[in-house]
Design brief:
The protein folds into two domains: about 45 residues; about 55 residues, no CATH class. Helices cover about 75% and strands about 0% of the residues. It has four helices and no strands. The radius of gyration is 33 Å and the shape is rod-shaped. About 0% of the residues are buried.
Length: about 100
């Protein structure tokens, strides 16, 4: 009987390998489900009240940078005798058609 125990430890039977495969598939399924849930939760964390404040500050900064660049360009245009061009961001936003899905 001792020889049988050693051979069983070295070489698994077909039923044991099938069980191992089933366990591996179940673990893989759980891992994929957990990954999907974590990705969903992580993607929703950027939406909400906190993002409004952050996005508003970024928007205001972008508008201010655009205004500074436009002013500098108009100063250069005036220096070389060209007509300055003033374009307000709100006029761009109001003239842009909105797309709905």
């Amino acid at each position: 009987m001792e020889g049988d125990d050693r051979s069983r430890l070295v070489e698994p039977t077909r039923s044991e390998t099938g069980l191992d495969t089933k366990i591996a598939l179940v673990r893989l399924g759980h891992l994929l489900a957990l990954t999907a849930v974590l990705l969903h939760v992580a993607s929703c964390s950027s939406i909400g009240p906190g993002s409004v404040r952050r996005d508003r500050i970024d928007y205001i900064g972008a508008v201010a940078d655009s205004w500074k660049q436009q002013t500098l360009l108009n100063i250069v245009r005036l220096r070389y005798g060209d007509a300055p061009v003033f374009l307000d961001v709100s006029s761009l936003i109001s003239s842009t058609p909105s797309r709905t899905r």
